[in-house]
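Appendix B. One record, verbatim.
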Amino acid sequence: MTSRQLDAAICLLISAMLLLAYWLTMPTVVTFEDSGLFLQVCHFNGVAHPPGYPLFTLLCAPWFWLPFDPVILGNSLSALFAVLTCIVVYFILQRLGVSQVVAAATCLLLGFSRDFWSQAIIIEVYTLNTMLVSALIYLALGFMERPEKWQLFTISLLFGLGISNHWPLVLLSAPGIAALCLGQAKALIAILRSPLNFLSCLLLLVLGLTPYLSLYLKSDPFFSYSTAISTVEEFLAYFLREAYRGVDQNAAAGVMDKVQFVGWLGVQSLGQFGYGFAAIAIAGLFRSFALSRLVCLAIVIIFLGNTLVLSFLLGFEFDFLHRAVFQPYPLVAWICVSLWIGIALQWASGKSGGRAVPVLIVLFGVIMLVTNWQQNDRTGDRLAHEYAAILLESLEPGANLIVTSDPQIGPVSYLNQVVVMRPDVTLYEAQNLFFPNKLAGKTAAEKKIFADQLPSVASVAIPWLTDGKDYGLYRRHGPGLSGYGIVPEAGDFILRLVDDYRADEYRDPNTLYFSHQLLIALGNQLTHYAFTNRAGG
C-alpha cells in the first residue's frame, strides 16, 4: 500500500468512526442555543442574526432540500464540517513531522474532545469555522516549506470565505497564519510584487466575500433577524454586530470579569482532552519550539488569539450564562492543543521505539472518550422540544403569542413554522425580529396598545406585558384576566423537569440554564397559585 493509499484509508476510517459517534450522540429534536433559529434560517433560506453567517446559510439552504428530518440535516451538517476539520488536521500533523498512525490517533482525540464534540452534533457555524481555519493553517505551512503563488491564491479565497462565515473568529487566527507566511517573506514579496498576482489575491479575497451579497439579495425572506438590508449603513451595522454591542460589551462587566475568564479558559484547556493529554500537550508545546521556532510561535499566537485576546476583547460578565455563550468560541485553540499533543506523541514514539504511545493513547484516550461521551450524549435532550410543544398545545384556538428571548423564539417558532404545530397560532417577537408578523409601533407603550387590540393574546416574559393571568409557561391577557392559573397539560412535563434536573440529566450548559430559570418561574407561579386558591377557598 502506497503512502497516499494509506492516507485515504486512514481518512475513511477517521470519518467513519467520528460520524458514527456523532450520529449516536446528536439530539433528534430541536434544542436551545441557536438551534431553532438556524433550522428556520436554513429551511426558509432566511437571514441569520448578525453578522449573518452568509456562507453557512448559503451552504445549509440546499442541504435542507434533502428529504430528511430538518433537525438531523442541520446537526449532520455540523458533523460533516467537524470531520473535515479533523481530516485537515491529520495532514497538518504530517507537515509537522508526525507519522500517519500518530496523526490519525491525534485527529480522533480532537474529534472526541469535549467542546469540539459538543459543536459537532448541533446545527451551528463553529465547525465550518474550524474547517476553514485549519485549511488556512495547512496552506500557510505549505507556503512556508515551499512557497508557490497558488497557495497564496487559495489562502486569499479561503480567508474571504472565513470572513463570510464568522469574521471575528477568523480575524483572531489571522496573525498566526500571517506569521507562517512571513517565514518566506522574500518569496511572499516576490510573488505579490507582480501586479497580476497581487490583483489575483485581491480578487479571490473579494470572491470569498461575495456570500455577503445574499444579505441584499434576500430582500424579503420569510424568516429573518431584521427587515431587508437596503443601504450600506444598514449592511455595515449588521456586519459589525451593532445590535449586539450591549451584549458583547456589557456595561456591568469589568476588568475582573476578563481576568476570571482567562483563568476559566485555563481550566477549560485542561479539560478538553483530559488532564493526562493536557500534560502531554504542554510537553508538545516545548517540543514544537525545538522543531521550529516560527511554527511554535504561530501556533501560540493562534491559541492566544482565540483565548486570551478574545477574553479581553469581549465585555462579558463572568456568570454561568455568559460562560455558556463563550464556550464554543475557542474551538480553534483546542485544535492548537491537539497539534501539541500530536507533536509530543511523535517525540515519545521516537524515544520509546513506538511502545509508549499506544499505552498513553489507550490509557488516557479511553478515559477521555467515556467522560466526553457522557457529557455530549444528547439523544435524550428533549427539553426545548417538550417545552415548546406544551406551550403551543395549551394555547387557545387562534391565539396570538408574543415572545422575545432565544429559548422561546427558536424552539417555539420551529415547531410552529417548520413542523406546522398549531398553525392557527400567530407568533410575534417583542422587538419585531425574525417573524413576518410585526407589532405596530416603536415604543413599548405603542406595542402594548397594539397587543391589547389583538384577540386571545398570550406572552412569555415580556417586561411591558405584566397584566393578565399568569399560567407559569405563559401569561394570558384580556378583559377580566388576572391572578394565577394552571395548565393541566403541563403537569407531567413539570414532574419530568424536576426529576431530570435533580438527576443532573441536563449536561448542556444552555439547557441547564434554561431548566433552572424555568423551575424558578414555575415555582414562583405555582406558589402564588396555591396561596391564592387557599385564601380564596
